[in-house]
């Protein structure tokens, strides 16, 4: 199986990240920031940006973690997206993000929320070992102005340890 590696993003990656954020249809599932907002976040010690790369070193997607400073060890996968969906890239990048986060930080609970209609992402998270925690009813406003439910999911350190 093709390996995905992670590297910390730099300001030079912001154009790539913004391109992926703006792929057709992605606005329904993920937020998008402008360049200044990304620069600000890149400089925030509580936030980590990663680029996922294939074996040739070509970027396949990005992820943003937040809450690195959380007192209780709750780190959030704030955003994850791949440039070409449905080729296994997202699953492999997510596995790399999970392993990297549990291996390199004191995180206890790695969490995320997903738009309930985003069946593809929900499937990928479940496959990676995330468990449903509950539903935030009508918590998100979609690009068309409609409200959507968010599903909270998490993986706890003992669950990660049992998988590895
Ligand atoms: C979510 C995302 C990162 C997943 O990455 P990906 O590379 O597309 O996913 P993969 O190819 O690794 O896996 C997709 C899985 O979903 C399944 N799937 C695809 N469409 C589906 C659907 N409508 N319902 C249920 N499962 C679906 C595929 O069969 C596959 O499962 P399998 O591995 O068991 O065959 C990617 O699709 C993406 O960037 N989407 C846009 C942004 C986004 O939604 N980000 C997540 C926000 S919470």
UniProtKB/TrEMBL annotation:
Keywords: Transferase. Pfam families: Acetyltransf_1. Transmembrane segments: none annotated. Coiled coil: none annotated. PROSITE patterns: GNAT. The keyword Transferase applies. CDD domains: NAT_SF. One of its GO terms (molecular function) is acyltransferase activity, transferring groups other than amino-acyl groups. SUPFAM superfamilies: Acyl-CoA N-acyltransferases (Nat). Residues 4-157 form the N-acetyltransferase domain. This is GNAT family N-acetyltransferase. It comes from Rhizobium terricola. The lineage of its organism: Bacteria, Pseudomonadati, Pseudomonadota, Alphaproteobacteria, Hyphomicrobiales.
